[in-house]
Automatic annotation (TrEMBL):
Pfam families with a match to the protein in the record: HAD_RAM2_N (PF23270)
Main location, first listed in the record: membrane
Family indicated by similarity: Belongs to the GPAT/DAPAT family.
Protein's UniProt name: Glycerol-3-phosphate acyltransferase RAM2/GPAT1-8 HAD-like domain-containing protein
Keywords of this entry: Acyltransferase, Membrane, Transferase, Transmembrane, Transmembrane helix
Length: 126
C-alpha cells in the first residue's frame, strides 16, 4: 500500500495523528521527540518503535480512529495513477507495513479491498 498508493514516502504523519488523537498530547510529543532516533534504526525497527509509542496502553475497543479520521488523510495522499490501477481489478489484496488496525478501514471502505495483509498488534488485557 505505502509504495504503490501513497504519494508521501513518510509514515510519520499517520503515526503522529494516531498518537495525538487516540493517545494524548504527551504521547504525540514523545513520538515527535523520538522520531530522529527512529530514523537512525531503519524502516523496519522504526515502524515497530512508532507502533509501540502510538498504541501501547490504548484499548482496542476504544480505538475508532482507524475507521473515522485516518481514511480521510489516506484518501488525500493517494496518487491518482495508483488509484486507477487498483480500481481496475475486482478482487484486491493489499499489503501494508502499517498495522491492520490503522489501514483496514480505509482499504475496505474506500478502495473495496477484499483482504488486507499487515501487522497484527498483540492485545493484552483489551
Amino acid at each position: 500500500m505505502e509504495e504503490a498508493l501513497l504519494k508521501s514516502s513518510s509514515l510519520f504523519p499517520y503515526f503522529m495523528l494516531v498518537a495525538f488523537e487516540a493517545g494524548s498530547l504527551i504521547r504525540a510529543l514523545v513520538l515527535f521527540l523520538s522520531y530522529p532516533f527512529v530514523c537512525l534504526f531503519g524502516k523496519e525497527i522504526g515502524i515497530r518503535i512508532m507502533v509501540l509509542i502510538c498504541f501501547c496502553g490504548i484499548k482496542k475497543a476504544n480505538y475508532r480512529l482507524g475507521r473515522s479520521v485516518l481514511p480521510k488523510f489516506f484518501l488525500k495522499d493517494v496518487g491518482y495513477e495508483g488509484f486507477q490501477v487498483v480500481m481496475k481489478y475486482k478482487k484486491k489484496v493489499a499489503v501494508s507495513d502499517m498495522p491492520n488496525l490503522m489501514v483496514e478501514g480505509f482499504l475496505r471502505d474506500c478502495l473495496d479491498v477484499n483482504a488486507v495483509v499487515g501487522r497484527d498488534l498483540k492485545v493484552v488485557f483489551g
